[in-house]
Amino acid sequence: MSKPLVQVSDLRVVVRGADGPVTILHGVDFSLEAGKVLCVLGESGSGKSMTMRALMRLVPRSATISGRVLIDGVDVLALRERELARIRGSLVAMIFQEPATALDPTFTIGHQIAETVRAHEGASWADARRRALDLLELVQVPSAARRLQAYPHELSGGLRQRAMIALALSCRPKVLIADEPTTALDATVQIQVLLLLRELQRELGMATLFVTHDVGVACEIADEVAVMYAGRIVERGSTEEVLGRAGHPYARGLLRSVVTSDLVGTRLVPIDGSPPELSALPPGCSFAPRCNHAIERCSAAVPELAALSASHRVRCARLGELEPAIPHAQEVST
Ligand SMILES: Nc1ncnc2c1ncn2[C@@H]1O[C@H](COP(=O)(O)OP(=O)(O)OP(=O)(O)O)[C@@H](O)[C@H]1O
């Protein structure tokens, strides 16, 4: 097994709130090798985006991060601001749901990509423009030479998303962080962009962290899946293990809808009850108040992420006591 490109251990984020500090992330651990895609699933507010932002220290001013984040051997939490700015966009690139946040409306697509290539690689304008064209072709923008001259608002949503991916790839990142990058697109375009991302990340050997609410998206592109609840990873493993043989009652509930491998657009199934207030988490397992299987022991202490197999881990005090698989397990193929 090769050495992981991304290693995250005991990642914690605490935000200063009006009524005192609130812990948003309670010690997140995972690692990811080059060329692999990890999908992070979970309900709104579970801490998916905060985890991704904390990796690059893009957290609110009121937040404090602790733990360890090693990316390609670089200790991100120990970097000075200047060094950090250098690795954002070169070692690690981020793409978001809304391309408008990454693309400047006042410059053409070609100018923005070429400018980034020049800033990071010191290339001449002529070389940078050639590379901008190569990148637009790589992300399969039709009539790429003409689109270089276009402003963001002149492109369709799908093309803008491709342009943003080209911009993210312009510095040859080793790690790509994608936070719901296809959610705003209609289903057909979503599938095209997802297939493109999967193809690119394999071709370029990037480690990709992909945040989504969509089980179908995870089925389509993930090698590994992590499920988050109330600021903790409650289950992680290979896509087949987590989507096919979920062990945590929360993950099982969320994944009730998974019946085939081609379900882009399948939102997670809402579970009865609502997530806890982060400022007033119940003792022990945060999911216990919503869990049909909870017993007294579940509220005594936060369970560890225990191993079900070499790669499959579940944070449940009743692991091993529950039925081993969810009913749809055999139908999932990845
Ligand atoms: N700037 C902030 N200050 C205080 N709390 C914040 C801030 N940003 C996020 N939070 C809180 O952190 C928690 C996790 O938020 P986060 O955005 O990571 O969730 P998420 O799982 O990505 O949700 P979604 O799927 O809706 O994007 C939420 O309870 C949110 O209210």
TrEMBL record:
| Subcellular localization(s) per the UniProt record | Cell inner membrane
Stored SMART domains:
AAA
A biological process (GO) of this protein is: peptide transport
Entry-linked InterPro entries: AAA+_ATPase, ABC_Ni/Peptide_Import, ABC_transporter-like_ATP-bd, Oligopep_ABC_C, P-loop_NTPase
The UniProt entry, under Pfam families, shows:
ABC_tran, oligo_HPY
> What protein family does this chain belong to?
Belongs to the ABC transporter superfamily.
Q: Which UniProt keywords apply?
A: ATP-binding, Cell membrane, Membrane, Nucleotide-binding, Transport
- Cellular component terms (Gene Ontology): plasma membrane
> What is the organism of origin for this protein?
Salinarimonas ramus
Q: What is this protein called?
A: ABC transporter ATP-binding protein
> What is the organism lineage in this UniProt record?
Bacteria, Pseudomonadati, Pseudomonadota, Alphaproteobacteria, Hyphomicrobiales
